[in-house]
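Structure tokens please, single chain.
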Amino acid sequence: MTGSLTRRDFLTTCLAAGGSAGVAARAGSLQPPAGQPANSSESFPWRRFGDLLRVRFRDPRRHFVFDYYPWYAAEPFRHWTQWDRVPPIDLAANTMPLLGAYDSRSRAVVEQHARWIAESGVGVINVSWWGQGSFSDRAVPLIMDVMADHDIHVTFHLEPYSLDRVRRFPEDVLYLLQQYGERRRWDCFFFNERADGSQGPVFKLFRTTVPQQIEDCRGELQTLPDFVPDSEWRREADRLREAMNGEFDHLTLLSDTWDAERVAAAGLDGISVYDPAETPDRWLDHAQVASRVGMVFAFPINPGLDEIERRVVEPDSCYSPRPFLPRGVDLVWSRGEDRETARARAERRTEETLQANLLLQTHPWLGNVDKGFFLVHITSFNEWHEGHHFEPMKSYSELTAGERAVGYHNPEDGAYRLRRLADVLGRL
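Here you go.
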């Protein structure tokens, strides 16, 4: 880091300004349709947890973070074309977005995203970032400009690191801090606050500690191309901390893995798992292991999984589509009642995953309290391929004949996920 990184002055200014707004109320655009009551779980002590967060932290909104994907494009289409899809009608998604096959570089699109995020009560986005000069990197300046206008802070989710790329990891983090923090006078760069008032940046790493080999469907061992030995991660994490040389109160490096012991061996600080397939009833075990080895932990608020299926599959492939989650009876997507069943399950999963995070991350016998840490990633705002997005979809009645022919899973109310999230956050 350079001596011009004046974060202390920046943080001092922020603290003087205050900003202790609780989790934000919802705006009118997220009100339920006429005659449709909002669901509730009156038995859960929402207000008690909200009071606890407000006692510990100045602005609870800054502890809820949307995973955000700026990888979509039009003219030509990008990412919407995955798995042989043909936009603008036929998209790599099981539901049609309200904004259609949009471009992440469009100011109008990002403005609408920012309004929705602000209305939901979420105060931070975690941008999927694929390296210096990448498509996602080029989208960041616009995203930060717009998010700053809506009082939304920005952090980064560093996507897969191979053995070659991991040796650039310290330089990547320093680049993000300098390019999108220091050069912008830290206008909306996210600093995570601990309960003692200390602050520092947080970076989430995807597929950091994958196994070296996995067994495929034929019982054969396959080497994973993005395997990196834990010792390599530790070396680069240590090199990064040395380069930063105490510029911040703390640096938090989170790994997208369940293996907290390997995270500790890799010199990282905690786990924040992306996987919506791991159900909340199993999170306590992971939280206990993380606490035992000195790691912080977080789990994803998510509506489940509705992943697009590949249309072209190699004859000898081990590929099989992942089922809709949360699981239950088989769903026939042409049936309106089944689409509404899926909606109800997704709503329950959203609420359950938030409740589990509140319970585990504030439990005095687990490690997050001792470290003053509370942070929840919401998976996701707009990962349309995997179907765990909170960004509004078209309502089923709004689909064109061509879109209906594709077989989209859109429910009757396309904004229900964001509205549900806003509802439960608003109870805090």
